[in-house]
Specification:
The complex is a heterodimer of chains A (244) and B (79). With 244 residues, chain A is α/β, with parallel strands linked by helices. Chain A contains nine helices and eight strands. In chain A, helix 4 runs parallel beside helix 5 and helix 4 packs across helix 9. In chain B, strand 3 and strand 4 form a beta hairpin. The chains are: A alpha/beta (244), B alpha+beta (79). At the A-B interface, helix 4, strand 5, strand 6, strand 7 and strand 8 of A face loops of B.
Amino acid sequence: MSLSKSEIERYQRQLLVDGWDQERLKSARVLVVGVGGLGGISATYLAAAGVGHLRICDSDSVEQSNLNRQILFTAEDIGKPKAALVARRLSVQNPEIEIEAISDKLTETNVSGLASGCDLIMDGLDNHSDRLKLNKASFDLNIPFVYGAINEWLGQLSLFNPPQTACLACLMPEELLSLKPTPVFGALPGVIGSLQATLALRYLMTGENPISNALLIFRADTMMFETVTFERRPGCGVCGKSCR
Amino acid sequence: MTVFIRAGGQLRVRLKPDVDHYTRKVEVDGEKTIGEILKDISLDPAYVALIHVDGKIKDLAFKPSNGQTITLQPPVSGG
């Protein structure tokens, strides 16, 4: 897939990056589920970098309490559907790429259809039970899954790609007991969403997973990054059978 | 033996740290699992999403050795 003159001009600074493969990005299809604090940031950087096709899924509409962290939205957007707003904004930001907006709620029934045909799944969700649905679809369809989550001063991410790696359910198989609403300030999803986008771009261009079987944890209160490793769980309800 | 338990976020408050802002020193009689140690200090494991020791994920059945630091991760599920 060759690049047009306009694309070469637009991407000229990143084309200088060692190992950069713009043509692979142009041919990539990525599903971003949830375009709030995390997904709004990762989708923005994937679009700006020239990922050829983004499928954006979010069933929510903008609320005033989103505006401290979901920086694609303004007070004028309150009440409007996020998926369509983000698709419109990113199309203006980069008209060279294709963007689909889907305002459906993620369910066990529709998740495979949403992910079908994509090279990568980006997690921009705000709850663990939906992440487990996405993780299952990722395993069933053999599509790598860039996980990210935040809470208070903690953020974490990984790239799950079983059977090469464990899956999210190997690590956290059940719903988590967490505070509702989640305590969060805007810069933290900004950091984690940017790291997710970086990980995704690297994976799409090279196939490499620099944090294979590892969780990258950012502690914003101490400004410390920590990597913890894990293994596949043979009893995992999602990917366990393929362990044996 | 002595182990150190470290936690952040909502878990930090439940842990009642005494070494520094995040860490509690716990004296353990003999060899115990992390689950048993948490029970001894009345910390409900339901509030713990992940446990790691020396950079590796562990579960409640893991038996720490003298001087080890056990890091408890609260649920991180927002976006």
